[in-house]
């Protein structure tokens, strides 16, 4: 009899713990969602004023993405998603959350992401804010392509394969008109992945987000026709012999 009573009490205790954990989790999620709504409310208002699409939670915004900033498994949702076009260039932008875990810590990090659709795939290239070392000694870092613009070289590090073809691509991509567009805003990280430009930066106000998207759109619009002819359709570096054969 004592065994049965003990079993029942143990079952009731486990049930209580489960119900308590469920309630606490629901409260935490509700509070977190309310905070997220307040934080992203300006994006909803901005979308409404400017005729953009808006979605508070897009469960699969980052599905199919790889490489930075999507290097963290299990984080695919986008929050405060804006969608629209600048000229002929479609874009979407969302807040991306991922978790950094250590032996004794765990915390969430948020970045703002923008995806711009290109007419066709281009080879990979990556840019990011130049480091202090790079600012002092431009061009000395490995795989750092310099162009004929000192302000740009001290603002950005351009990472591309160290060969003649990739440098030709990088220099043509970063032509004076495109560089001028990028230099209108603070440096931020971006890269080309197939037929997409992927960019990311710390969370910020909607106007700052759109300024960066506009800068990238200006860069894309400035791409010279020969770049699409020579490199378009390749999401890796093409073989010159096969390309012209």
Percentage of β-strand residues = 25-35%
Tell me the span between the first and last alpha carbons: 88 Å
Question: How much is the radius of gyration in Å?
Answer: 24 Å
Shape: elongated
As a percent range, the share of helical residues equals 40-55%
**Number of separate helices:** 8
Structural category is alpha+beta
Describe the protein in words.
Strands 1, 2, 3, 4, 5 and 6 form a 6-stranded antiparallel sheet that branches. It is built from 8 helices and 6 strands, in the order H-E-E-E-E-H-H-E-H-H-E-H-H-H. Helices cover about 45% and strands about 30% of the residues. Helix 5 packs antiparallel against helix 6 (about 205-220). With about 240 residues, the chain is of the alpha+beta class. It has helices spanning about 1-50, 130-135, 150-155, 165-175, 175-180, 205-220, 225-230, 240-245; strands at about 55-60, 80-85, 90-100, 105-130, 155-160, 190-200. Mean pLDDT is about 80; it is low at about 135-140 and about 235-245.
């Amino acid at each position: 009899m004592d065994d049965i009573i003990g079993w029942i009490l143990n079952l009731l205790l486990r049930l209580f713990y489960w119900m308590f954990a469920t309630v606490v989790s629901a409260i935490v999620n509700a509070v977190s969602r309310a905070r997220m709504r307040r934080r992203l409310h300006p994006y909803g208002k901005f979308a409404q004023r400017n005729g953009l699409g808006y979605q508070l939670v897009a469960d699969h915004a980052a599905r199919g993405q790889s490489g930075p900033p999507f290097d963290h498994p299990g984080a695919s949702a986008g929050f405060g998603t804006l969608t629209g076009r600048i000229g002929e260039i479609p874009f979407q932008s969302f807040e991306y959350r991922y978790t950094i875990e250590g032996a004794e810590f765990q915390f969430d990090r948020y970045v703002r992401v923008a995806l711009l659709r290109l007419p066709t795939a281009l080879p990979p290239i990556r840019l990011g804010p130049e480091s202090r070392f790079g600012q002092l000694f431009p061009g000395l870092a490995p795989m750092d392509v310099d162009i004929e613009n000192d302000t740009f070289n001290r603002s950005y590090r351009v990472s591309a394969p160290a060969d003649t073809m990739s440098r030709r691509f990088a220099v043509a991509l970063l032509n004076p008109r495109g560089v001028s567009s990028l230099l209108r805003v603070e440096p931020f990280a971006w890269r080309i992945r197939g037929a997409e430009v992927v960019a990311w930066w710390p969370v910020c106000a909607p106007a700052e987000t759109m300024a960066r998207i506009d800068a990238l759109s200006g860069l894309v619009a400035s791409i010279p026709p020969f770049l699409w002819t020579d490199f378009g359709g390749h999401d890796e570096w093409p073989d010159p012999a096969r390309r012209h054969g």
